[in-house]
Structure formats: structure tokens, C-alpha cells
Amino acid sequence: MENLPVIMSGTKVVLTPACREDVPAYLRWITDPELNVFLLDYGRVFTLEQEYAWYDDVVAKAGSHHMVHLDIRLTGDQKLIGDCSLFDINYREGTAEVGILVGDKEYHSKGYGSEALYLLCRYGFDKLNLHSILLRHLSINARGDKAYRKIGFREFGCFRESIVRDGTRYDMVYMDLLESELRNPTTGAG
Length: 190
Fold this sequence. Notes:
alpha+beta; Aminopeptidase; 5 helices; globular
């Protein structure tokens, strides 16, 4: 798909509205064992029908769920490589939580995820008037942790041994970001 409206634009990726026709890609990503291990829905089995129902109930009605859900696409041809969201948006307090998944593994560890996350946070601060953004991740997600820190997220605590993966316990790491701490991963500037 191409020529979708661009919500935020970077050098490598653009953020666009989510499209229902991309639901099969979302399902492929969240059921990939290499990616699923990092998700809170770990181990759950989803059908295509369930994923469409999730899209129809949550993504298509994002405003009523206090969330913004966007697709991550390549800048040139708008090839879909992932998705991201701001959720649990509290407009009064200016807070939200962020989630991101670069599902196309060809684009892992090459700066696409950190740029997408930067753009999403920039959107949250500039368009939604957020003050603070929360992020949670498993302690075994070293690649994600590096990307989060690259754009300015700071660890403020962890829920020790609170997550189980294949019989092993891991920490849930909590990070947050204020607008003044946000850094562009390409330039390092705020």
C-alpha cells in the first residue's frame, strides 16, 4: 500500500494511520516466536478472526479507547514494517504509555525502531500535549532497551521477576520520558 496520509515523517520511516488490510501482517508478527517472547500477550494463540475483531474494536475506535495506533512504514514506498501506539492516554494529566513492534525482522537493529519511537513520542508531545510517556519492557529485550535509551527514556524501576517465559522469571523494566529528554536518534539533538 502506498500514498497513505503521513502523520509523522523521518528519514527512514513514516508513521501512517493503521489499515485494516494489514491485520494479517500484525497477526504474523505477534505469533512469531522470536517476537512474541517480548509481548505481554506471550503464548496466547490468536486467529485471524480474533485479530480482525481486535482491530475493529480497538484500533478503528482508538479515540474512544484513549489511544493512538499508527503503522510504521518505510519513507519511500511506504512498505509496512511495524506498528506503534500511545495508549492509556490521560489528557488531563498529560500522560500515556507507549508500545512499539518492528515486525519485519529485516529492519531490526538498523535504527528504524528508534526513529519510529522518536516520531511517536514527538507526536505525543507536540500534538497531544503530553508531559510524560511511560514504557515497559522485559529485561531480556536488550535490543529494545538500547533503542529506548537512545531517544532518552530513563529507567526508573522494575517489577522484579514478575514475568515468566518458558519457566524462567524476568524483570519488567519501567522507563519514562519527559519532552525535555527526547533526543532524535539520527542527530542526537532534542
